[in-house]
Amino acid sequence: MSALKIALAGASGRMGRMLIETVLATPSVQLVGVYERANSALIGQDAGAFLGQRTGVSVSNEMHAVLAAADCLIDFTRPEGTLAHLQAASEHGVKLVIGTTGFTPAQRAEIEAAASRVPIVLAPNMSVGVNVTFKLLELAARLLASDYDIEIIEAHHRHKVDAPSGTALKMGEIVAQAVGRDLAEVAVYGREGVTGERKPSTIGFATVRGGDIVGDHTVLFAGAGERIEITHKSASRVSYAQGALRAAHFLADKPNGLFDMQDVLGLR
Ligand SMILES: NC(=O)C1=CN([C@@H]2O[C@H](COP(=O)(O)OP(=O)(O)OC[C@H]3O[C@@H](n4cnc5c(N)ncnc54)[C@H](OP(=O)(O)O)[C@@H]3O)[C@@H](O)[C@H]2O)C=CC1
Ligand SMILES: O=C(O)C1=N[C@H](C(=O)O)C[C@H](O)C1
Fold first, then answer.
1. What's the pTM value of the predicted model, to 2 decimals?
2. Which of 2, 5, 71, 76 is CA-nearest to residue 35?
């Protein structure tokens, strides 16, 4: 079977670099294009230069050239960048794996609309461990529904720009749905001052930012006389990159449609 041809956006980013390294180390995929914004010092350099490797693929700010030979674009950038790349990918009929977080509902609707033309995997966390954790949360929330207070705590590196993390928000949606609540109505994002007693049906979010924390998520179920904590900790970005490549392979035979990592990993 021939290798899946991968284009990447956000070459200079933490995930961009990890993806270049992972693609180059994975025989079932081939790097065919790497995009970075116009003012980047990387434009024109070999995409593997930061690893001391020569790939023959130069970093480019011409998205149409980057996509010309690609089967799939993997995008971990920012919402406004992803939406521009989505437009170009759907014009080229190139499949998309989107790891970017922080989309507004309107931006998400744009992605859903594009998925009628090209197949897309959109997931706030591509690691297998986090996606299995989602299943554990569903079970725990269902069984603990009435008597336990639910709080979600996430910690990330100092450079992260969106909060709560996309993963924490997804965890909130999962537990809210499992206990029959609407997250938009019950979410409490941080607390300060005289807040009054905790309302039983709320789901609280707490955000920590510091240093080089790759990504920690805990869902706390606090009841009378006991606490259950379900925690996932990332020690490296490699699990996100490997998940993104699994997602790209999953899309290979899909004509269109919007999928997530639960679909990719067969966890539905
Ligand atoms: N789904 C998952 O499993 C994971 C998701 N993420 C998400 O991926 C995203 C990227 O994270 P990370 O790599 O740490 O971020 P970085 O800030 O390290 O990298 C972002 C990259 O995107 C580029 N970029 C920023 N804005 C735009 C734009 N408007 N148009 C085009 N390119 C742009 C940057 O280029 P420049 O250098 O020019 O600014 C840079 O190359 C975040 O949303 C994060 O939450 C992260 C890890 C895992
Ligand atoms: O920005 C990050 O680093 C991460 N972002 C994703 C998120 O917002 O959930 C996934 C992971 O936690 C790392």
1. 0.98
2. 76
Residue 27's beta-bridge partner residues? none
Pocket test for ligand 1, best of 62, 76, 216, 239 (most atoms within 8 A of CB): 76
Q: Are residues 114 and 23 located together in one domain of the fold?
A: yes
9 and 118 both lie in a single domain: yes
For residue range 6-36, what is the model confidence (pLDDT) as tens digits? 999 999 999 999 999 999 999 999 999 999 9
* 125 assigned ligand-binding residue: yes
How many whole angstroms separate alpha carbon 173 and alpha carbon 258? 18
Same domain, 8 and 118: yes
70 is in which domain, residue-wise?
Answer: 4-122+237-264
Would you say 232 and 216 are in contact if contact means Cβ atoms under 8 Å apart? yes
The Å distance, Cα 217 to ligand 2 centre, comes to 10
| Cα 156 to middle of ligand 1, angstroms | 14
Within 10 angstroms of residue 123's Cβ, the number of other Cβ atoms is 26
Pairing of strands 215-223, 226-234: antiparallel
Atom of ligand 2 nearest to the CA of 154: 12
